[in-house]
Amino acid sequence: MTLVMEGRSEGAMREAGYRYVGHSPDRQEALEKVTGRARYVHDMELPGMLYAKMLHSPYAHAEILSLDVSEAKALPGVKAVLTGRELPYLLGLYMVDKPILAQHKVRYQGEPVAAVAAVDTRTAAKALSLIKVEYQPLPAVLSVEEALTGGVLVHEDINTLDYVKGVFFPQPNSNIASWHKTIKGDIQKGFAQAELTIENEWRLPQVAHVPLETHVVIVQADPYSPKVKIWSSSQSPFAVRNLLAKAFGISRGDITVVVPYIGGGFGGKAGIHLEPLGVVLSRVCQGRPVKIQATREEEFNQLPTREGLRGRVKTGVTKDGKIVAEEIYFDWDGGAYADYSVNVGRAAGYAGAGPYEIPNIELHSRTLYTNKVFGTAYRGFGHLETHWVIERQMDLAAQALEMDPYEFRMKNLLREGATTITGEKITAHSGCVDQCLEAVAKEIAWTGYQSAAEREKAFKTGKVRGKGLAVLHKAPAMPPNTSTSAIMQMDEDGTVRLLLGAIDMGQGAYTTMAQIAAEVLDMPLEKVKVIWENDTDKNPYDWQTVASKYTFMGGNAVIRCAQDLLRQMKEVAACVLRCPVDELTHGNERIRHIQHQDKAIAFKDLALGYAYQNGTGIGGPLIGRGVYMAEGLTNLDPATGQGLPALDWTYGAHGAEIEIDVETGEIHVLKIASAFDVGQVINRKLAVGQVVGGVIQGLGSALIEGYKYSPEGRLLNPSFTDNKIPTAKDIPDRVVPIFIENPQRDGPFGARGVGEHPMISVPSVLANAVYDALGVNFYELPLSPERIVSGLARQKE
Amino acid sequence: MCAEHEHKAAQTYQDSGLPRVLLNCTVNGENVSQWIDPTMSLLHFLRHELNLLGTKEGCGEGECGACTIIFNGRAVNSCLVLAQEAEGSRILTVEGLGQEGQLSILQQEFIKEDALQCGFCTPGMLMSARALLDRNPEPEEEEIKEAIAGNLCRCTGYYPIIEAIKKASEREKEASQR
């Protein structure tokens, strides 16, 4: 049985034959990773290093009446004990709402209330057991419904919290951390035109990222100056630097953030997490390095997760299947602190209706504070969640119309000439979602839903099969003025060293950037070396490694960087060869004349500047620079959400075939075909890796994963025993990645991002297939065997 | 090697105060003889006493497989084994897979098939695969899945790993017939 087909490409064929772009070179760091020599922060120890541990709140919401740390402090080997009392700081990316350690009250079970630094982890753990805390439990807000009533406030000081104004919209005296509205057309008129209205409510729980390396930092903070050095398993070294500087009122120049190898991120290591605690502990310990490594339980229960969501949608359609109006309420279970979840809410505002043309829409996306583990970015940033709602709703609309859901989607998909719900015009170069849907429908041999009679017949065999379809879109969720940069230096043997701002956490960014550099310079890939360890003191700036933006933005920066290097080489070569610059070209690691090919200088002879035979020098060491800043994007209108939020849209579609055991309710996935219009594949092997890995992460969200709480708000499953992720035995028989390549005119070689997209709409496509198999609709995730069996039982009644 | 480590105090680890025990074992073909705290885990011994940092800790509870090593021919979670239980044992870690600067066939196939992304689960995954191929040189696909089911990977979706193990099995068979 073949498990994965080689990713194949459909659509426009490239005219140019590329030397590296579109090929499948091995990842640059593979050798270090298969020999166990790749060093993660997890592996690092520094001389004199101390180990920190945190004490957590047992309550979801409680006042801290007293905290006694005297016995802990007296324990030999303990170097520091800190509580929120000593740390009057608030941090936050967008809402400045989160203390380093709880101050006065705790807002979720698992929130750290005290921290100890000691000579070893056992001493630190023992010290924690000596800390006495008295709590006064408060009523907890544990659902979006409770949050919306506002009877209990998670942040009683919401009216005075600092936040990014004009972009986020906290509501006074409420649990609404931000309320985004997208209003286009006139929904009153739209619903008046509708011949059929379909209204549903959908839900999904919080889900954890589960990087195999838990969050870990080592911090060395000079007690005599503001200088801080941090080694972190982070996707966002420059964001860490920025947010730390803001929180502590120190200069960016005093902060160094170093990121070696990182053992998975998936959005959970974006932003700032354990770093501030490390800073204050190290400073109290006279600048000794302090290591904080989250336990697996803390990874689930203290560090952030994906938001839960309740989505309510009302869709108005005509009898021939055109969407004429839609009203959507997304209510995000954002947990105790806003972190990224307000930005997830914002992204849902402009992308949450899916890749459809909807003339009249009113979309409300509200990020709510609750007394649960707080939410953050997770691969696809709100899109798996909103597409769970929309791509199920589209199937239900088709069911109500008694129409093939393929036909229904085809009638309404965004195409050239259409406008998005924020007023952006889709062009011939925006990518084609219809081609993605067509490709996956063909791959799974889609012929429409089976009939009730066919279902009944299959049911008697005990195993029923079903097929489903779903589409998706996503653009990078980022500020309109996001930027990145690259620096390239050449050594005297013609080797190019490339310094980037982004982090390669396994997605293969550095390998694809090396390919792009080698392609533009037309030189051997083996001679392009990307400097691995990212250090904010040495590497050029990048906003954060998130949002599937780096192939596009970093690729463009690297192209410009390589062009800058070539321009410098040609300027010197023009003097030496005594010809105009514009008569020079390059190839085979040489700058040469376009006509007289023997008039040439090797790259290596220009690397440090050219030396004439008599020793006279000209030029100097080559240093190329390249930057890319997002172009033409705007903030969204606060009242209507109109504007240009999208650098590039990557469209996609999944087709799935499943088999359900009607006795046990277990879903066996036979096949998932996944197509994405990536514009141009840069590294085929790595792109396939993103697709199959992402699809399996989506499968986890669809079938098994999700946080469970006790009625008091205690997380019941903070371990791999109770919060399973897919294993090798849970994967579909086949995953078929398909790449559509309609080039993006301003993307590097026409490319768009695809890192996050594969997991979006996987839950929806599977639930759509479940409907085809059973004739039963499911409105909540995960599609666990219990849920399937009880859904079947309800249907029998 | 032994002398060097006898005097090195493991920083993350506080002595339990119990009398030390002598541990004699073979790690990656090298004889090790060392006095250790009887409560120390084998994972801790490998990482912090022998500085074999390729073996990772992902959960500390035997649920994720990142700490998998080969212990007397069997793949085990080293976080669940006390170091003193390793008395007289043969241990293989990821550092012992390649020989004299040459990658093993299995490691080569992991690279070719891109059976890794972040790389954190990779050492444990390689050891589970190695133990499988040692006891069953031509495993069926289901047997491969079974053998690595205790090794969690959040990046790859497992397909390229399964493919790499299949390819390694084929190539090792060819190599043994030569």
Automatic annotation (TrEMBL), chain A:
Q: Mind telling me which Pfam families this protein's record contains? A: Ald_Xan_dh_C, MoCoBD_1, MoCoBD_2
Q: Which InterPro entries match?
A: Ald_Oxase/Xan_DH_a/b, Ald_Oxase/Xan_DH_a/b_sf, Ald_Oxase/xanthine_DH-like, AldOxase/xan_DH_MoCoBD1, AldOxase/xan_DH_MoCoBD2, AldOxase/xan_DH_Mopterin-bd_sf
Q: Give the transmembrane ranges.
A: none
Signal sequence interval, chain numbering: none
State which Enzyme Commission number(s) the record gives: 1.-.-.-
Which keywords does this chain's UniProt record carry? Molybdenum, Oxidoreductase
Q: What class of enzyme is it?
A: oxidoreductase
Name of the protein described by the UniProt record: 4-hydroxybenzoyl-CoA reductase subunit alpha
- Organism of origin is Acididesulfobacillus acetoxydans
UniProtKB/TrEMBL annotation, chain B:
Record pathway: Alkaloid degradation; nicotine degradation
Under the heading Pfam families, the entry gives: Fer2, Fer2_2
Name the residues that span the membrane.
none
Q: Domain of life here?
A: Bacteria
> Which EC class does it fall in?
oxidoreductase
Q: EC number(s) in its UniProt entry?
A: 1.-.-.-
| GO terms of molecular function | 2 iron, 2 sulfur cluster binding; metal ion binding; oxidoreductase activity
The cross-references to InterPro entries, in alphabetical order and at most eight, read: 2Fe-2S-bd (IPR002888), 2Fe-2S-bd_dom_sf (IPR036884), 2Fe-2S_ferredoxin-like_sf (IPR036010), 2Fe-2S_ferredoxin-type (IPR001041), 2Fe2S_fd_BS (IPR006058), Beta-grasp_dom_sf (IPR012675), Diverse_Oxidoreductases (IPR051452)
Does the record carry Metal-binding as a key word?
yes
Q: Which residues form the 2Fe-2S ferredoxin-type domain?
A: 21-97
* Keywords noted in UniProt: 2Fe-2S, Iron, Iron-sulfur, Metal-binding, Oxidoreductase
Q: What is this protein called?
A: 2Fe-2S ferredoxin-type iron-sulfur binding domain protein
Tell me what organism the protein belongs to.
Acididesulfobacillus acetoxydans
Q: What is the lineage of its organism?
A: Bacteria, Bacillati, Bacillota, Clostridia, Eubacteriales
